[in-house]
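User:
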Amino acid sequence: MDRVVNAMWRLKRSERAETALFYWRMQGLKVIRHAEQARSYEVTFPTVSFPPNITDKAAHTEASEALERAKRERDRDEVLVGCVLGSEAGKLARYERGLERSLFRTLDELRQLQDRRRNRPLPPIFDAVTLAAGDTE
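Assistant: Predicted structure:
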């Protein structure tokens, strides 16, 4: 039974990691959108390195503040977990599939033990991998 609890806990952990990855990507998109919006109120001269001329100071200030909030949210430690996991997404998916298979094997083993104790026949338990591999029709 401890193996089932452990596998369930690890599956929940991978679910939280996936959520962090998606949230980090969403925050990155927000930063890009707010930066573009703030730049839309700026007029720059390509040949001169003066500060940009702001066409609408109130809207530019509001867009710049929104950009800073989005950057702070994107760069929080909890969100950066998603950044780290972004490069490891394939490994994470394989890890999750392995945990699911382990959970199904453990549950099947538990069911067999319970059925033996009750002297009942053993109908098979199928998981998605077994069904996909055995489905040849």
